Amino acid sequence: MQQVSGCHRLNRMRNKYINKIICGDCLEIIKGWPDNCVDLIIMDPPYSIGKAKWDIWNPIILDECKRVLKENRAIFCWFSQYKIGEIQREINKRFNFKNIIAEVKTNMVVTTWDKDKLQIQWEPIIFAINGEKAEIQTNARKFEVGIHGDVWRAIVPQSNFKGEKKKLHPCQKDITICERAILLQSNLHDIVLDPFCGSGTTCLAAKRLGRRYVGIDISKEYCGIARMRLKKMDIGIPVELQKQGFKGLLG
């Protein structure tokens, strides 16, 4: 009976969430999922650096991420370099830490809030495995995809850019960085989860690379934008033109 129930939950999860942008609290949504149901997690959670009301980091989400992530599969997690020790401790409690990847921003200098500090031009990405040994061995895969080192150069989206790199979210990532993580630690048709998907960059990268995706975000506005960005891949209509029917996409 337990096996049947588990299969039913897995099928229900896939039918309801796969290749969709879900609006809501990721912790509450993921709690209803079966164990071991996603192949890769890419997440850019709030950093808890006190710059916005929504900027609250709850490490409990990592417990749910560990539960739903298949054994020996990977998680990539951005975090603030101000609190890199904090996130690494939380990751180490649950996962097998592998690397701190430096995302170097080549087209901008990020101003710090503390004027006595140097300006920030990079962000850390924690790379870890849910188990003792990665199912997709990085040493072999890196030669297949041509990604060898732990310094990844990014072009930060700007409002005057066009296409996938146009800035539509204040914390939007370079799609090529998401693609690197996906290529290194997933296979065709795998399920990629982004529990803080914002404007949907991870989901765009997954779709473009032939993976399935689940994007979750608490903001109805950004869920709508993410859906429009994904829809643009199918119909070719830019987000700006789709906004005429914006309310119907918020769902």
Kindly identify the CATH topology. Rossmann fold
Assigned CATH superfamily: Vaccinia Virus protein VP39
- Major sheet summary line: 8 strands, mixed
When the domains are counted, the total is 1
Distance between the termini: 35 Å
Indicate the overall shape: globular
List the helices and strands and how they pair.
Elements: H1 2-17, E1 20-23, H2 26-31, E2 38-43, H3 60-68, E3 69-78, H4 84-94, E4 96-105, E5 122-129, H5 138-145, E6 151-154, H6 175-185, E7 191-194, H7 201-208, E8 212-217, H8 220-235, H9 239-242, H10 246-250
Parallel strand pairs: 1-8, 2-3, 2-7, 4-6, 7-8
Antiparallel strand pairs: 3-5, 4-5
Helix pairs in contact: 5-6, 6-7, 7-8
Describe this protein's structure:
By secondary structure, this protein is of the alpha/beta class. It has one domain: 3-Layer(aba) Sandwich (Rossmann fold). 37% of the residues lie in helices and 21% in strands. It contains ten helices and eight strands. Strands 1-8-7-2-3-5-4-6 form an eight-stranded mixed sheet, sandwiched between helices. Strand 2, helix 3 and strand 3 form a beta-alpha-beta unit. Helix 5 crosses helix 6, helix 6 packs across helix 7 and helix 7 runs parallel beside helix 8. The radius of gyration is 18 Å and the shape is globular. 35% of the residues are buried. The mean pLDDT is 87.
